[in-house]
Amino acid sequence: MSKIKLGILGGGEDSLIGILHRVAANMFDQYEIVGGVFDAQHKKSLNFGEKLGLDTSRVYKDLDDLIEKESKLPDAEKIQVVSVLTPNFLHFPMAKQLLENGFNVICEKPLTTTYEEAKTLQKIQEKVKSIFAVTYTYTGYPMVRQMKSMIAEGAIGKIQKVDVQYYQGWINPLIHDKEKRAVTWRLDPEKSGISCCIGDIGTHAFNMAEYVTGMDIQKILADLNYLYEDNPMDIDGTVLLRFSDNLKGVLRASQIATGEENNFTVKIYGDKGALKWEQENPNYLYLLKEDQPLQVLKPGHSYNSDFSLEGTKLPPGHPEGIFDSMGNIYMGIANAINKADKFDGAYPKLYDGLRGMNFIEKTVASHKEGNVWVNMQD
What SUPFAM superfamilies does the annotation carry (predicted)? Predict the structure, then answer.
């Protein structure tokens, strides 16, 4: 089977996310990166394309140029799927244009800057039937997928408590300096949307809570922190979650958790046991039982689910990391494009991005309306 031809928007010379996506795309030999628009400055984009060893005639000036020229190529040669790795405010117009011109799309999160934009993309995607993935990266970890499988199989019984936490401290050097916080794009609503912390990392925690439990959150109550009156964007927040009248949880997200790096922790408690996973030690899944010693599950062993093992590339004892996680998502997308889907949840879909945008807006609304319960359902 020929490789899927991949184009990339953004993710150029100094982009960490660009490296992550390129390595992930090459991991299973399913994709061939053939071109794109890597930088708003065409000269920089061309130079970067040369470094990647690409045919620079397919390093385009802008998205219009890409669509016009790629659409003229024979089906066997043109780009099939495009990864959108640009700042948040460009996600919607780029994804919309790509869908309308018949391309499959892989989009960084958050999906858009407004819920209405996300719903517009959903309507277009339902009409054109293109594959659309939103890269909630952490869903690709083998032990996250093992957690999802075990919960679905009843390993911890009926869920009765959900606790998700995502703590970082990266914004501390910026937020306390008035000049720096005024020029940081993540704190600019025009570029980042209405939320910084919840929009950036809180959506990962929200998505994970729904992903591993297989349940939709019904209502939320939020309390956000902006720290300074002239800062228009939240940088810390706590959100109470209500899946049902008897199943509740809490989501905590912060970018001012001093000293924290990327502390993303997921804890799901059932009436027969509990599961706990930590992103900074992603190869360990902890199973807790009241009448048994703590059990530690690791990737690559035969006791894991087929879903977990399908995304495990190394023998037991060899760490799987963030590149592997994103690679598993790219593999799931490739299987979908090739109509060879194997597992539900193999890649986050547009619906997951839509849920994330709804969560961002409802969280901000809950806070601004006086920390009240808000219904997540339309």
Answer: Glyceraldehyde-3-phosphate dehydrogenase-like, C-terminal domain, NAD(P)-binding Rossmann-fold domains
How far from chain centre, in Å, is Cα 161? 23
Q: Which of 321-324's residues contact partners 24+ apart within 8 Å by CB, and which partners?
A: 321/282, 322/20, 322/137, 322/282, 323/20, 323/23, 323/24, 323/27, 324/27, 324/140, 324/141, 324/142
Closest residue by Cα to residue 81 from 324, 279, 329: 329
Q: Are the C-beta atoms of residues 304 and 320 closer than 8 Å to each other?
A: no
Bond from prior residue into 299 cis (ω within 30 degrees of 0):
no
For residue 191, the model assigns a pLDDT of 86
Q: What is the pLDDT of residue 378?
A: 64
Mean pLDDT, residues 110-130: 97
Q: Where are the domains of the chain?
A: 4-137, 142-314+350-368
Distance CA 164, CA 150 (A): 18
What average pLDDT does this structure show over 165-183?
95
For 67-120, give the DSSP string: HHHHTTS-TTTS--EEEEES-HHHHHHHHHHHHHTT-EEEEPSSS-SSHHHHHH
| CATH superfamily assigned to domain 4-137 | NAD(P)-binding Rossmann-like Domain (3.40.50.720)
pTM tops 0.85, yes or no: yes
pLDDT in tens, 62-106: 999 999 999 999 999 999 999 999 989 999 999 999 999 999 999
User: Sheet holding 104-107: strands in order across?
Assistant: 31-37, 4-10, 81-85, 104-107, 132-134
Whether pLDDT at 1 is above 80: no
Q: Quick one: tokens of 17?
A: 């996310």
CATH of domain 142-314+350-368: 3.30.360.10
Closest CA to 97 of 59, 126, 124: 124
